[in-house]
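Rotation project, supervised by the postdoc (A.L.). Task for the rotation student: set up a whole-complex structure prediction and record inputs and outputs verbatim in this book. Inputs entered:
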Amino acid sequence: MIVAGCDLGSLTAKAVILDENNILASQIIQDAPEPETSARQVMDLALKQAGVLVDSIAYCVGTGYGRNQIPFADAVESEISCHGKGAQWKDASIRMVIDIGGQDAKAIRLDAHGNVIRYIYNDKCASGTGRFLEVMADALGIGIEEMGRVSQTSKSPVTISNQCVIFAETEIISLVNEGTSPPDIISGLHRALAHRVAALAKSIELEEHIAFTGGVAKNPGMVAALEAALGRNLTKTGLDPQINGALGAALVARKALQDRS
Amino acid sequence: MIVAGCDVGSLTSKALILNNKNVLGYCVIRSKTRPEESAREVFELALKKAAVHEEQVMCCVGTGYGRNKIPFIQEAVSEITCHGKGALWVMPRVRTVIDIGGQDCKAIRIDKEGTIQKFTTNDKCAAGTGRFLEVMAKLLGVAIDELGGLKGGQNQEPLTLSSACTVWAQAEVIHHLNIGKSKGDIAEAINRAMAGRVAILVGNVGLEKDVCMTGGVAKNTGVVRHLEKMLGVKIKRLKFDPQIMGALGAAIIAKQMYTGENP
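Outputs recorded:
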């Protein structure tokens, strides 16, 4: 039985194809202007990678910001519950997911069965989301995927005094002009974002085993900063943190099929 | 007796020269990287306009964001106090002063002596500050002082911005531009969103009439119009450049300090 999950986020689209026990394929692409196009493109890539035909997908669940515009989805599920399911697939001990996406951040507490106990999210203020780092990478003239590596040579991270993305951007430009080293600035940015997101997570009480998901979790500087801000180690599952939502959607698809039969 | 006030803000610096009850001259410049430089330059320009020598100035008070770095002042006073003083001097019946600067927004309630009764300020979030308008004007490709004059079409549902956050609102404006909405309609939405944020702040201090606006954004007639509608009051126009109220207040305090009269 082959199932699929498709996660249409604000910046990227993700697709995961699952058989009984394995991920057959996972793909991530930058969003196309039309959500339908993004969904089709990412799913076509995943089908190709898995070497299966679209007809062999028994059930597909859509999630994410654009979930209602996925033409081939049999059902939709909120990204909150998909992230919960996805995070526990590899490690059943996980009880909390902290997800930082391009336009939001969420913290989700789970029970032993992957059900959501409590969650909180921020999509009102760009500070505390992936956009914060994106804007700052632009201001620094470096790629967002380089930030983690560059930050590792930091000796004394700066303290960013502004929370607002708009004000912090000006602050960064002044720091650059004053000759502060990019590693110290970037490391300071990681701390600032981690601090914001940790405050969000702490507001619903931290659990012992926490997974960090979303595109921002690929940045090792952010992982370290978030661990410091939370005061505990994050549980690593070895999976690409960015496909967690799509994986959860595929798991929801499998569950739906099982319940039906 | 000649005194001066100098207001070094985040975006602009202002200086004003006062002789008893007459404003001899004032000047507004874009702030430089170093507050010391901004203060020196704007002060000299104001002296020139007033045709006054620096030695004739008996006392000078500084205010604004960079007030503690102004080298030539006798005293630094908070901009809250200065805006209250300045506005009251120009408009004796004013009790609520809404000051919107380049990087902050304040609502100040004063009594008939100009003493602060209550105030609230936002300098944490760019929404509701001059910076919001600056970012948006840049996106629309218009000068910031043109933004207030742009009006939307009459015969349709007005555009709105659903996000308060400047970053998200930027994306909304780009979307509106891409789908071909007119600059007038978008500007109207921007001004309304701006007024909405300010109205929340004013609500927090409690409104008392008369109401006036100071700071650069007071020159944006669109924001003023929407704010009047939201607050349900007329915002009285100052018979003076609203941007120099802080510097004027500082000069008035300088005069009171020098003569020893009751502040």
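Student's summary: The first strand of chain A starts at residue 2 and ends at 8.
Supervisor addendum: Chain A touches chain B at residues 103, 124-126, 131, 135, 162-167, 174, 177 (CB under 8 Å).
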